[in-house]
Amino acid sequence: MDKNIKDNTLFQFIIKLFIITVLSSILWIVIIYFYNEHKIALNTKNIILQKKEIFSKKFDINDLKNIVNKRDDIIVFRLYDNSFKPVINIKKNTNNPINEILNYIDNSSHATQYKMIPINKKDIYLYFKTKLTVKKKPYYLNIVLKLDNKETSMIYNNIQESIIIVLTTIFMVFIFVFPTIYSQYKSLLKNKNKLLQSHISTLISLGNAIAKRDSDTGDHNYRVTYYSIKIAQKLNLSNKQIKSLAKGAFLHDIGKIAISDNILLKPSKLSDKEFEIIKTHTIKGVEIIQNNHWLADTKDIILYHHEKVDSSGYPDGLKGDDIPYNARIFAVADVFDALTSKRPYKKPYSLEKSMKIIKDEAGTHFDVNVVNAFEDIYEKIYYDISNLSSKELEKIFYKIIKPYFDIETEGR
Q: Which CATH fold would you assign to the domain 12-156?
């Protein structure tokens, strides 16, 4: 597999896994946060119940004042009667920042409420308001307390416990889940590569079968595919277009399988009727591949590789840009190889004569832009493969299609 493609695929996998891990971690953090809040709430309620018990005994109002004044942990103590008139209003440590915070707390509601107010790591304050019964009379208590070291430690232990759980979870994902997912990913790539290899092998088998049927070797298919890809690269076509071009070029004459031997292999000139039958190989070729999803994008070449830009081609007499671009590219590669190759009815033309014929038919048979691009590279690409054996052509074929098919080609 092409190293850049492998690296890019692996990079995309890592990015996706990272995103999944981050999203999972965020979700887990949210769950832990609410769990932590719930746990802190339970602990806080227990603290409130303990504090409330101190003031719920059968004390009178003066006793309550004395208790509050003696306790260093009580910063603010407000007691209201049933009509919400203040009965006790005690503030200590007036310079303490908790008094500023208390100003923002609504004291008008009788509903039970609490709020944890951390000032720093050592100082955590607890505000709560609740209903209180003193000597069978209902009162409403608003109080701010400073938690002792034990209570503060408990709160921070809960927070630290949550952080440890989150970090441990993320660590476990990367240490244990990542290798499993990566292993499955590698297995998927391996299976994908096997499937692609199977597709390519089928492509080659079909192409060679067509060539054998047409009294030719498969070399023509390898050469025209090579020429087509090189032209497409010169024209800066996309990888997707070149992939389709490569498949279509190799299977361009697949429809000839449906043509009878007495016409396909006739050594003498074909009659007009016979030539009309030969021309149907483009339509028959499409019929052969129409139910194969992997070969669906080869239609443009199989059906239209005999169209001409002046509309004199077949099967539909398309003109100019109405002819698919891949078919226009392939037409140049196909005719060039036919001109420069030995056929039963002719000797190979020279490179110069072949190119002259191509140029002379630019604008009538061939697309001018394609011919211009081909003119810049035809000599080099011709000499690159003109004297190669069938095995060598097969190796060149695999080498040039690798980046577009994302396949391993070990041993080739």
A: Beta-Lactamase (3.30.450)
Instruction: Check the CA dihedral 367-372-373-377 and report its sign.
Output: positive
Distance, CA of 84 to chain centre: 63
Pairing of strands 74-80, 124-134: unpaired
- How far CA 381 is from CA of 83, 338, 339, 404, in Å, comes to 100, 15, 15, 19
Question: 8 in helix, strand or coil?
Answer: helix
Sign (positive/negative) of CA torsion 176, 180, 186, 192? negative
The pLDDT of residue 77: 84
- Tell me: pLDDT of 6 over 60: no
> Nearest-CA neighbor of 324 among 227, 226, 252, 406?
252
pLDDT of 2 reads: 45
Cα distances (Å, whole numbers) of residue 90 to 75, 78, 94, 99, 114 = 8, 6, 10, 11, 19
Nearest to 130 by CA among 146, 112, 145: 112
Instruction: Report the alpha-carbon distance of residue 361 to residue 253 in Å, rounded.
Output: 22
Confidence of residue 329 (pLDDT cuts 50, 70, 90): very high
CATH number, domain 214-405, options 3.40.50.150, 3.40.50.12500, 1.10.287.3510, 1.10.3210.10: 1.10.3210.10
Give the global pTM: 0.60
The residues, any chain, with a CB within 8 Å of residue 132's CB and separated by 6 or more, are 52, 55, 56, 79, 138, 139, 140, 141
Question: Omega into 324 within 30° of 0, i.e. cis?
Answer: no
Quote the CA–CA distance of 25 and 167 in Å, as a whole number.
9
Contact 151, 122 (CB under 8 A): no
CA of 400: how far to CAs of 118, 132, 230, 357, 412, in Å? 67, 86, 9, 27, 12
Q: Judge contact between 206 and 254, C-beta under 8 A.
A: yes
Structural contact between residues 332 and 357, judged by C-beta atoms closer than 8 angstroms: no
pLDDT one-digit tens code per residue, 65-77: 888 888 888 888 8
- The CATH 3.30.450 domain(s) of the chain lie at 12-156
How far is 264 from 258, CA to CA, in rounded Å? Answer: 10
Domain with CATH 1.10.3210.10 in the chain: 214-405
